[in-house]
Structure formats: C-alpha cells, structure tokens
C-alpha cells in the first residue's frame, strides 16, 4: 500500500504499540501534540489495557500491534514494545505506507536497521528512532556551544550513566544505556568512531552484562569513555566535555546547575620556559548558564509531526539510527570475544 499524503488540515492519526514502562510517557506526549490524533493503543497485557481503558475511554484498544498497524484510521505508528519486536512491527507499518517512530534501539541488528531504512526510502515514509536526549535542552545547549567553537577541539568526553537497575533480561546495559550516550555524541560530533575498546562484568547472568566500560575513538581526535551500570548504589548522569578552549560538565540530575562551563585548560610552555614548569595552567571563571526547561519527549513528538509534514529534516532518521546500532553491534562482538577469552583462560 502506498503512503497516503496527509493534508496540513488533517490531523496525523496515531497508533501507539506497547504500554509498559515507557509507553505511557509517549502516549502523554502524543496526546499533547496538536498535529496528532491518537486513535489507538495496542498492548498485549490485559491488565494494562484495563488501566488504559479507565484512563482514556476515547482511545480504541487492540491486543496486538499488527492489528493496530492495519487499521484504516491509522497514518503513523509509535512503537514502544521491547527492542526485539521493533523490526517486525516497523516493517509491517512501512509496507502498509505508514510512518514510524520506533523506540531506541531502532532494531537489534545493523542488517535489520538498514532494511528498514531502505524500505522507508522506497515507500516515501518517515522512519525515526526516539533518541530522546537529542531534544533535551542541555544537549541542545552543548551542541550549540560546540558548533560555535566555544569549547574548542574536544580532546575527550567522559560519561557516567549508572544506577541500580532496571535489570532487563532482554537487553544488556550496553544496548539499554549506551545508546543514549552514543546518540548524544553522534549528534554533537557528527562522526562515527574509528576504533573502540570495551570491558564488562555480569553479576547475574553471563549473557547480560550489567556493567560496561566502552571507549570510542573518533576521526577528529576525540576519545570518549562511557561508564554504564545497572549495579551502582547511586544514580549518576554526568558528562564531562574536555575542550581545548573551555571544559564543560553536564549533570543531568542537578536542576539548578545542569551545565557548568570552566574556562580552564593546560598548555605546554615554550621550550625556553620549561625550567620553570613544563605546563602552564589556565584556571579561569566558571559560568552556569540558565538551561531552558521542557520535556524532551514533547520535542520528539513535535519533530515526528514536523518531519511527516515536510516542515523539518529528521535529526534521528533510520540511517542515523543504524550508525548507533553499528557501534553497539561492534561493541557487543568485542564483549563476546572477551567473554570467550576469559572463559578459556579460567580452564
Ligand atoms: N527513550 C527512552 O529514554 C526509553 C526509556 C525506557 C525504555 N525505552 C525503550 O522503550 C521500549 C519499551 O521499553 P519498556 O521498558 O517500556 O518495556 P516494557 O516491557 O515495560 O513494555 C513493553 C510493552 O509492550 C507490550 N508488547 C510487546 N509486544 C507487543 C505487541 N506485538 N503488540 C502490542 N503490545 C506489545 C508488552 O506487553 C509490554 O507491556 C524499548 O525499546 C526500550 O529500550 C526508551
């Protein structure tokens, strides 16, 4: 079936698939988006459907995502079911000429992601992934500081995304959490890593590491380190950007001082001055800009509507999503190889 053009006078009729942990946030923001008319929610679990029926009596309910996709009164689908269902559901939607916003990660393999991106292009449909953090005001501010040269060349990015849980047997901490950091860095640097190293530990099950340290190296010289854990006693969400002009710390859990910019740096002294000290330190002012507030998912919903309308170019389309999945796939292969080597060494 071909894509149906939606007139700007008509609302974009939406089906949401999956009403578990994250689905309710997407539903709330889809309902708040003036271009959308949420027609239907599909959810396998009967108790969750009952909860939905009580809260939103005007929204039709389906028990299966494929039935929701096939409805005549649906133009676009938002997929918030587990990652291993995204490919099957997104493929069915695109084949029926319907636009897709799939939760992260868009698919669990590069091959599936590329197939979806090709299908979307062939059908003229919008395919996007919810890389939520690209609509976080702090990330927007860091991106514009970087693009304006205020940070200079980035030597390193050091990211900490740790907390206790949510342990998930279907994913591991790499696929669950690194996807956010990698999407943020892809957005800011617009580069793909040329090399990476990775190490992990699995406290509960061998197949599902709950602690991962990933280091990626970018063509422009930036090195990024990601500390990811579901097994930390405290929750930390912090990224340090080491620029040669200024350094920046983003603490996402600090509502008063989310971003701090340090006019600090270090450079080698002239050869003739090195008898005094080898390096010269610059320890300047610290500024704390006011970061606008706003829910990132509202931005994601508005962007999905604007891309369908042709008012905006997508910043998180299928091709971009594949770039992130390619990094995850390579990192996973390295983790698997490490595990084999450690098992062999123990024998
Ligand atoms: N962007 C973010 O910050 C963010 C945060 C959390 C989760 N997520 C993503 O959202 C997705 C869902 O995660 P979750 O934690 O909400 O999972 P979940 O298991 O809590 O919920 C998924 C729901 O989908 C339903 N479901 C599964 N297959 C279905 C089908 N074929 N038809 C209808 N319903 C179906 C399940 O019954 C379940 O209620 C994952 O891809 C996850 O990575 C994104």
From TrEMBL:
GO molecular function, one term: nucleotide binding
InterPro entries per the UniProt record, alphabetical: Gfo/Idh/MocA-like_OxRdtase_N (IPR000683), Gfo/Idh/MocA_Oxidoreductases (IPR051450), GFO_IDH_MocA-like_dom (IPR055170), NAD(P)-bd_dom_sf (IPR036291)
Top-rank lineage group of the source organism: Bacteria
Pfam families xrefs: GFO_IDH_MocA, GFO_IDH_MocA_C3
Residue ranges constituting the Gfo/Idh/MocA-like oxidoreductase N-terminal domain according to the UniProt record: 12-131
Residue ranges constituting the GFO/IDH/MocA-like oxidoreductase domain according to the UniProt record: 140-247
Name of the protein in its database record: Putative NAD(P)-dependent oxidoreductase
């Amino acid at each position: 079936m071909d894509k149906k053009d939606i007139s700007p006078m008509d609302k974009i009729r939406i089906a949401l698939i999956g009403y578990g942990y994250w689905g309710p946030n997407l539903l709330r923001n889809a309902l708040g988006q003036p271009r959308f008319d949420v027609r239907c929610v599909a959810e396998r679990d009967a108790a969750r459907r009952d909860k939905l029926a009580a809260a939103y009596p005007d929204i039709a309910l389906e028990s299966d995502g494929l039935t929701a996709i096939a409805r005549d009164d649906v133009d676009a689908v938002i997929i918030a079911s587990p990652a291993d269902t995204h490919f099957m559901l997104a493929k069915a939607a695109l084949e029926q000429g319907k636009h897709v916003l799939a939760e992260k990660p868009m698919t669990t393999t590069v091959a599936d992601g590329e197939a979806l991106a090709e299908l979307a292009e062939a059908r003229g449909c919008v395919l996007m992934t919810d890389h939520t953090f690209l609509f976080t005001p702090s990330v927007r501010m860091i991106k514009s500081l970087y693009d304006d040269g205020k940070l200079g060349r980035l030597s390193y990015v050091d990211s900490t995304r740790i907390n206790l849980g949510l342990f998930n047997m279907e994913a591991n901490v790499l696929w669950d959490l690194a996807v956010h950091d990698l999407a943020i860095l892809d957005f800011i640097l617009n580069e793909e890593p040329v090399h990476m190293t990775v190490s992990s530990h699995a406290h509960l099950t061998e197949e599902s590491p709950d602690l991962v340290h990933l280091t990626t190296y970018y063509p422009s010289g930036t090195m990024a380190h990601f500390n990811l854990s579901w097994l930390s006693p405290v929750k930390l969400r912090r990224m340090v950007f080491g620029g040669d002009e200024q350094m920046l710390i983003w603490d996402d859990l600090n509502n008063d001082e989310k971003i701090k910019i340090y006019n600090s740096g270090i450079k080698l002294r002239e050869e003739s001055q090195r008898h005094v000290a080898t390096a010269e330190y610059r320890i300047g002012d610290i500024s704390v800009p006011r970061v606008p507030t706003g829910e990132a998912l509202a931005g994601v919903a508005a962007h999905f509507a604007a891309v369908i309308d042709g008012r905006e170019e997508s910043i998180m389309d299928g091709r971009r999503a594949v770039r992130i999945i390619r990094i995850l796939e390579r990192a996973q292969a390295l983790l698997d190889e490490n595990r084999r080597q450690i098992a062999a060494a123990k024998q």
